[in-house]
Automatic annotation (TrEMBL):
Residues 116-287 form the Mur ligase central domain. This is UDP-N-acetylmuramate--L-alanine ligase. It is an enzyme of class 6 (ligase). Its main location: cytoplasm. Its EC number is 6.3.2.8. HAMAP family: MurC. It holds the Pfam family Mur_ligase_M. One of its GO terms (cellular component) is cytoplasm. Residues 9-111 form the Mur ligase N-terminal catalytic domain. One of its GO terms (biological process) is tetrahydrofolylpolyglutamate biosynthetic process. GO terms for molecular function: ATP binding; UDP-N-acetylmuramate-L-alanine ligase activity.
Length: 453
């Protein structure tokens, strides 16, 4: 299939963070883009503001008559239900139907592709890399899984020669891509509902790594069982971070990067936490090998403003700090906790956590309990189901029973703001990949209002 021959694109699940980036790209390329999603969000509103028509009722009457099987591509989310009316209409009428990863595969086959894989760090690493390449003048389009603050979008650039994509391991989607340069940040167990066990996950990542023909263009976090250029923070590696310190005035990291050829000094980066420093190093190593200069790296790392819901400061005053993060796996929660503790070692930290998926909660229940027990207070919300149906016995009450903390509580979403204000917090962090992100503006405004009194 040639995308150039397609006039119309119909998205089922257009409000997803990955689907919406692809919709934006095809809309900017002149395609007529229409989509369905279950419910309106801030993101779907922005897509509508950009000229994309979206509806929230599963009804074939919303499909325009001029969207024929000859001129229309249908793009579906992997989470689509088999009973979906519109999807079944397209199936019955022999439309070309592709998953998002398949469309990205078509795009990456015809461009020079940087693919960022790993169970953690994909969005931050791909966002930094996309920003570096864009600022350096590359004709790049970067599809990322978060809203990059510099651009207010999950799509960076509109170039036709270079792509940056998140290589998503869910549903083995990353095996659809054609990477010229790739990295793998981590290979922790996740998506066990798809893979079954960690060995199967590692096998899939190794299969992805084999898609990079030139192994000098494969970058891996040191310690992973893969052949490629090793990167590390504070350890010996092909690319490593040196002289790490924090600027007391700006709060930024100051550091140097040692490459196989030289040392790049005087670098600044504003996203704190060693996991974010590792992400910045990975992106820098890929860009450096591509020919991006030291000066261009300095400017881009310094100017990168971050990604919404990735250790995003909402409030930062002397008496109150509020951070929001997308973490939804025990390893990610540990990284967030470590960063917050390093920054605010003497303050009381309250975490509001919304578990994401019944299957993930079941598979990692002990890991979640151990990670959450490290916070001083825990407000635990009900599990966000996303694409899943409930699993008997898998509840937030079960998780709460395993958390070892005197400050743990199960709280309804509607009571969060009231309970936060009553708790008189010093540091608040909201954590989770579900609709907790929609609550952030309200929480921020309420806490700011309370502090002003």
């Amino acid at each position: 299939m040639e995308l150039g021959q397609i006039e119309n694109v119909y998205f089922i699940g257009i409000g997803g963070i990955g689907m919406s980036a692809l919709a934006r790209c095809l809309n900017s390329a002149g395609k007529t883009v229409i989509g369905y999603d279950k419910s309106p969000t801030q993101l779907t509103q922005k897509l509508e503001n950009e000229g994309i028509s979206i509806h929230f009722e599963d009804n074939i009457n919303h499909i325009p008559k001029n969207f024929t099987k000859e001129n229309t591509l249908v793009v579906i989310t992997p989470a689509i239900q088999k009973s979906h009316t519109e999807w079944n209409f397209f199936l019955r009428n022999s439309y070309v139907i592709k998953k998002r990863a398949e469309v990205l595969g078509i795009i990456t086959k015809n461009t020079y592709c940087f693919a960022v894989a790993g169970t953690h760090g994909k969005t931050t690493t791909s966002s930094i890399l996309g920003h570096i390449l864009f600022e350096a003048g590359e004709e790049v389009t970067a599809f990322v899984g978060g809203i990059v603050e510099n651009y207010g979008s999950n799509l960076i650039g509109s170039g036709a020669k270079v792509t940056v994509v998140e290589a998503d391991e869910f549903d083995r989607s990353f095996l659809q891509l054609y990477p010229d340069v790739a990295c793998i940040t981590s290979m922790d167990a996740d998506h066990l509902d798809i893979y079954g066990d960690k060995d199967s996950i590692e096998t899939a990542f190794k299969e992805f790594a084999e898609k990079v023909e030139n192994k000098s263009r494969l970058f891996v976090t040191k310690g992973l069982p893969l052949c490629g250029k090793a990167i590390a923070v504070g350890e010996d590696a092909d690319f490593k971070v040196l002289d790490i310190r924090v600027d007391s005035a700006s709060g930024e990291y100051l550091f140097s990067i040692q490459t196989p050829d030289c040392i790049i000094p005087d670098l600044r980066f504003g996203l704190l936490g060693r996991h974010n420093l590792s992400n910045a190093l990975m992106a820098s190593a890929m860009a450096w090998t591509h020919g991006i200069s030291a000066d261009q790296l300095r400017r881009s790392l310094c100017s990168f403003k971050g990604i919404k819901r990735r250790f995003s400061y909402q409030i930062k005053t002397e008496n109150l700090v509020y951070i929001d993060d997308y973490a939804h796996h025990p390893t990610e929660i540990d990284a967030v906790h470590q960063a917050v503790r390093e920054l605010y070692p003497s303050k009381r930290i309250l975490a509001v956590f919304q578990p994401h998926l019944f299957s993930r909660t079941k598979d990692f229940i002990d890991g979640f309990a151990e990670s959450l027990s490290k916070f001083d207070q825990i407000f635990l919300l009900d599990i966000y189901p996303a694409r899943e149906h409930p699993i008997e016995g898998v509840t937030s009450e079960w998780l709460l029973s395993k958390i070892e903390s005197p400050g743990k509580r199960l709280i309804a979403k509607s009571h969060v703001i009231h309970e936060l204000i009553d708790s008189d917090p010093e540091v608040v962090i909201t954590i989770g990949a579900g609709d907790i992100g929609e609550m952030v503006p309200g929480i921020r405004d309420a806490l700011l209002g309370q502090e002003a009194r």
